[in-house]
Amino acid sequence: MIKARVPAENPEANLGDYNKRYQSFNWKDIEEQFTWHTTGRINIAHEAVDRWAMDPERKERKALIFEKGDTVAIFTYLQLKEKSAQWANLLVRFGFETGDRLFVFLPPCPEIYFALLACARIGALFCPVYATSTFDEVSVRISDAVPRGILTHPDLVEMLPTDIQDNTEFIFLTEGPLPNLLANEILVGGIPQQMPTEFCNIWLRPRSPLYLSYTSGSTGPPKGVVHAHDDMVGILSTAREVLDLREDTVLWVDADPAWVTGIVYGVLAPWLCGATALVQGDPFEAANWYWTLEKHSVSVWYTTPRTLTRLKEAGGNLASRYDMSHLRHMATVGAPLVPDIFYWVKQHLGRSPHDTYWMTETGMICLANFPSMDIKPGAMGRPVPGVEVAILDEDGEPMPPLSLGELAIRAGWPAMMVGLWLDEDRYRAYFNEKGWFLTGDIAIMDDEGYYFHQGRNDDLIKAGGHKVIGPYEIEQILCMHPAVSEAAVISKGSEPDEGVSYLKAFITIHKGFTPSIRLNHEIKAFVKASLSSDIIVKELSFLERLPKTRSGKLLRRVLRAGELGLPAGETANMEE
Length: 576
Ligand code: WT7
Prior knowledge:
alpha/beta, nine-stranded mixed sheet, 28% helix, 24% strand
């Protein structure tokens, strides 16, 4: 664990004194900021968009800036209210009702956000699917959630199963010409413009479903995680305290809209704060990323370690050519923010990236490095106010600081998923009998309450039968060798009698180094010098790149499966 400490970047930020805030925090105070606090009837479209659109002071503010290629489309809060009301009227015209599912299978485009709000207005479930999904991924999800309609693009229609019309009534296409591959294709085109710009929102109970997001577990089919309208309590609170959003913020979340991050923090969080959401629809390109920060005067940027790694690969010189003076806060999520990347960003972008941790299932950030708190590079930060976190042993009991165990969250925080789509058993399996939600992540908490990620549950390495270690620390040691860029470590079995555990390491190397038998031995000797004698990196392979998910998560199980000649499991979120 890294002991280094980087002083707080902005001691004046929203949260202020962490300990004080954590102790005095009460979710009721956040709930009181919403109108449903008194009525008991809720709709996130009202709180996120309509109340600003009905306010003469705020209705002309930019709610959404969408950029792709040479075009920039800007929508004020009033325009967003009207557009999404037209889309809600369209869905009702086609028979949509509360509880129906709408699949949204599109590359980034403004229609995704109109559809999201339209679903919210009528209490339908918005179900985003990656535009880069394979045929199988799409069809597994469709047959599980059985949507009434699918909103897609003509280029993607051939990815839909041909027997779809048995259950799905409408294939809505954002533009023409119709491919005429399926019986029920409907060109949306200009229909919304003919619809009324007013819509009477359906008032719902707080835990009514809002969206359904599929996440691929390491075993079994993907899980359909269902989230509710009152997630807004946790989203608003973390938007302010973790991302430091204010009304004048331009927030850029460079996550795919099919990933929860792109929906929850990409648009819902800034809209609940009355701020501006920026969506960049182009694929990653380093110069364009810096240019986006400059051109739109981005003030808060929520990104991933993967993106920062790619910026590092493009070199520090490129970063220095852009004006990022408006950028006052940056945060990351999805995978460990390794110290190497942290320091590179600090040096070349002039500010600290703040790591945050959450899951599709948690619906909101649960651990964070707050702008007003010192950062320990490599740590995911501390629990957000209102959320209780612990490290549990194998019996589900909280452990003292500096113990390796499973990261758990006290059930009942506001944005917790309401269920798994049609899978009560798998839902219940997330919780232990003492009321903890089990994340499946392995972590250590230090004596100041900072959490360090150590890998996933199924990545654990057993040393000599009794000791259990996380792969992450060994990977960090590998990365300290000058030739090693990235590393992944898996277990290759142990010798219980001798008390030793054998590991295999997979690495990628920096430009300027060449794989060789000699380098292979050298790296193994380097690691040996830093590890206890019962943990031995026996084999080492050079790879072009490590298997990762689209959001940059290392897939050790794919490497394990490859070693053992087994199927790799759900690879739905694998990087293209
Ligand atoms: C898994 C959740 C991540 C945004 C919400 C969707 C990993 C997440 C971190 C971090 C190390 C992280 C965990 C978690 N993860 N944040 N800061 N450091 N690992 O997330 O796609 O459901 O993935 O992402 O393993 O369980 P998701």
